[in-house]
């Protein structure tokens, strides 16, 4: 009891631990809902259905990354709320204008182009995916504003609501035999999140019109460097799904998709929550190089302790676990997970602290690093396809990804060290 009381006292005294705890709790609940529903969904829907969902969410991710021009990434950086408010308005306005144009353009595309992506459905799925991407981008802007205002309980609640709606409606539609249930549930969850997060809209969006042109000019380096980097990153991140579907078929894309879902659980549960708090605290700590680097190293150590056991379990028992949990049709997914596990472990350590480059002003070198990513990700799968082995292509991708993460972290370390030498 003494130990528990002491731990509780430390938690209450430490804003970082308390905020991380709130976000982690919300993420645990949201991911727990998804995990509980996946064994049922994997039996209600085929690997091809999961492949269609993966392509649908890939389009959402790409659109959501583009339409805000990435201005929202700076919302946590300004010391004054007035400047952050301008960035919120700028990001939402950009999302509405560009998102509407992209959705309209996708609606005008011939259906044969959408069908060539591997999804053959009765509904016009591509415009719906673009619409969902636009809504998701607005949700992300508002969640960053809540992060700035330290409204972590609201953020955690939204995460749980989104997961609950997506899983519950997918199960209902699956039991009803609706083939497109996974896609419909995904779209519905995004729209519901906008409804809930819209209640926390800052009052300045409704009562005042603030000039945002100066903010757009001040943060123009975001459009010049961060946006291309983010677009390249999200395209190359989603490209494996599209390439696997084109080269090995929608069923293999579904197998890869489920493996990816399971592997990102540690990053989703802890990485996202820690990353949001890390970004806010790192912005405050910098330019104190010692404090900033200490924060980075402590975050890495904690995440390494959390991720090492799941890494070993997946590597040695991946196929058996997937077959037991999701059914015999998902054995290939377990094999894929075993191959990708080291990459996901490295990503677990890297992702929560990756926003440090924004604060450190490393947009330009990170952009050039992302160009290399754009080459090796598709090249790895192409080599595997040429040699007739998806596993080999994924193994090459895994090795290259770890090397890229090491290069990124070296740039962060070098930048912090330079500051330490000049101070």
Task: Describe the structure concisely for a colleague.
The chain has 423 residues and is an all-alpha fold. The chain has helices at 2-13, 15-44, 47-66, 81-108, 111-115, 125-148, 152-175, 181-197, 204-207, 213-218, 220-248, 250-263, 265-285, 289-326, 331-350, 356-360, 363-386, 390-422.
Uncertain stretches of 5 or more adjacent residues = 1-8
Tally of domains: 1
Strand content: under 5%
The chain-level mean pLDDT equals 82
Distance between the termini: 45 Å
Number-wise, the strands total 0
- Secondary structure class reads mainly alpha
What order do the helices and strands follow?
A: HHHHHHHHHHHHHHHHHH
Question: What is the helix tally?
Answer: 18
From the alpha-carbon coordinates, what is the Rg to the nearest angstrom?
Answer: 21 Å
Largest sheet, in brief, is: none
Give the % helix.
over 70%
The geometry reads as globular
Structure description:
The chain has one domain (16-422). It is 84% helix and 0% strand. The protein has 18 helices and no strands. The protein is globular and about 55 Å long. Residues 1-8 have low confidence and may be disordered.
Keywords:
423 residues; mainly alpha; 18 helices; 84% helix; 0% strand
How do the strands and helices of this protein lay out in sequence?
Elements: H1 2-13, H2 15-44, H3 47-66, H4 81-108, H5 111-115, H6 125-148, H7 152-175, H8 181-197, H9 204-207, H10 213-218, H11 220-248, H12 250-263, H13 265-285, H14 289-326, H15 331-350, H16 356-360, H17 363-386, H18 390-422
Helix pairs in contact: 1-2, 2-7, 2-13, 3-6, 3-11, 3-12, 4-6, 6-8, 7-8, 11-12, 11-17, 12-15, 13-14, 14-15, 14-18, 15-18, 17-18
